[in-house]
Write a structure and sequence with these properties.
The complex is a heterodimer. By secondary structure, chain A is mainly α. Chain B has 7 helices and no strands. Classes of the chains: A mainly alpha, B mainly alpha. At the A-B interface, helix 1, helix 2, helix 3, helix 4 and helix 6 of A face helix 1, helix 2, helix 3, helix 4 and helix 5 of B.
Chain lengths: 192, 208
């Protein structure tokens, strides 16, 4: 193999920018949507710092476990295991496992947020934080996983590599549904 | 003869699929593999949240800051984790062996992702300003929002690129697969570092 540096590099600045920009534009637009949802209730959020601590960690769970689910489904389809949606053990097991990981993480987030907020002196009752997290996570995980399975199957059907399409989109979708879920939970508990 | 070898192949293939299902796709194996990473990631998320809850003054003084916050974190995560996975691939291909300033593969990757951060940050600031105005909310102005986005995402990009390169090369030297380590750690550190840089750049803009 020739020494790199005496030949055209495999990675060029232009190539990286051209492949990156379309996905980043979508990330930007979805991020602004999430921001506007937060903006509409900015005054209430600022008066509840415990919720501000909860938001970044809770909305990550859906995106993280959703991307893991997407990557698993995509690998299984690449191996030729994805022909039937209903009786497919890879889809079943991955969705169940991702939900377990999501729920356990949301409980751990509630404990950490409770500890951090009482340490910083603006404590909220632990049960309230746990209720908000669980309601938000149920909404977030069900929407994100349905979208992940649907996108993975559709892109597989049409011969698009799911690795390129699912993961960046799912992370942004997780943020969007996560914030919506937290707001629904706050309304249900009459906090907002 | 041929049909027999065909049957062997079929048996081999179904055994292979059974093995895949029992070893890599059983519920307990997936949970065991993914849960530790996700728990560490939530600790990072809570750390980012603590910084966010300390920004209430800036959030009140800069209307529109709360609009760009999810975008800044999302861009950072997206750009840095793709950088991490590209560096991993380049190391596996033998294109990068050292933390060398003259290696074009390494420098193109890092400068490409930094340029991408700046372009995306400008887009985010402009979009944030106009969408906020269009919905009838108050905005701190296009210049301030773009400035905050660009400073926060460029500085966090520099720090994270350096960490990603160091981590990828170091992990490979010590015999770990960079793909398993770099992406999750960059995702976790990325939230904390970009939130902190967002906090600092908001403080800087408030001072002017």
């Amino acid at each position: 193999m020739k020494k790199p540096g005496h030949q055209t590099p495999y990675y060029t600045v232009n190539g990286i920018i051209q492949r990156g920009l379309p996905v980043l534009l979508i990330t930007c637009i979805m991020g602004i949507f999430v921001g506007q949802i937060l903006n509409s209730r900015e005054k209430n959020l600022i008066s509840m710092p415990a919720i501000l601590i909860l938001i970044p960690s809770l909305i990550k769970i859906g995106g993280d476990t959703g991307s893991m689910l997407g990557a698993r489904l995509s690998s299984a389809f690449h191996m030729g295991l994805g022909d039937n949606l209903r009786s497919n053990p890879v889809v079943h097991n991955s969705v169940i496992a991702a939900s377990i990981v999501g729920f356990v993480s949301s409980i751990s987030v509630s404990i950490l947020v409770f500890l951090a907020s009482s340490f910083l002196g603006f404590g909220m009752p632990f049960l309230t934080i746990l209720e908000i997290s669980l309601i938000a996570v149920v909404i977030e995980l069900s929407v994100v996983y349905c979208a992940t399975v649907a996108i993975a199957f559709i892109s597989h059907r049409f011969g698009i590599d799911p690795d390129d399409t699912v993961i960046p989109f799912i992370a942004s979708l997780g943020d969007l549904v996560g914030v919506t879920g937290i707001f629904i939970a706050l309304y249900m508990l009459d906090i907002l | 003869m041929t049909s027999e070898s065909h049957r062997d192949e079929d048996i081999f293939e179904s055994q292979y699929i059974d093995k895949y299902l029992s070893e890599y796709a059983s519920v307990s194996s997936i949970v065991r593999e993914a849960l530790p990473f996700e728990l560490i990631a939530t600790v990072g998320g809570v750390a980012a949240g603590i910084i966010f809850s300390g920004m209430t003054n800036e959030l009140e003084m800069i209307p529109g800051l709360i609009v760009i916050y999810p975008g800044v974190l999302g861009l950072r995560g997206n750009i840095s984790s793709t950088l991490g996975s590209r560096l991993g691939s380049a190391i596996h291909l033998g294109l990068i062996t050292d933390l060398d300033r003259h290696n074009p593969e390494l420098m193109n990757n890092i400068s490409g992702s930094l340029i991408l951060s700046v372009i995306a940050a400008i887009m985010l600031g402009i979009l944030g300003h106009f969408v906020t105005l269009a919905l009838g909310f108050e905005s701190a102005g296009i210049f301030k929002l773009v400035l905050i986005c660009v400073i926060a995402s460029f500085t966090s990009g520099v720090i994270l690129s350096f960490i990603a390169a160091l981590l990828a090369i170091g992990m490979f030297r010590f015999g770990f697969d960079p793909d398993n380590v770099v992406t999750p750690s960059i995702a976790t550190l990325g939230d904390i570092i970009s939130m902190f840089m967002l906090f600092l750049s908001a403080k800087l803009v408030v001072m002017f």
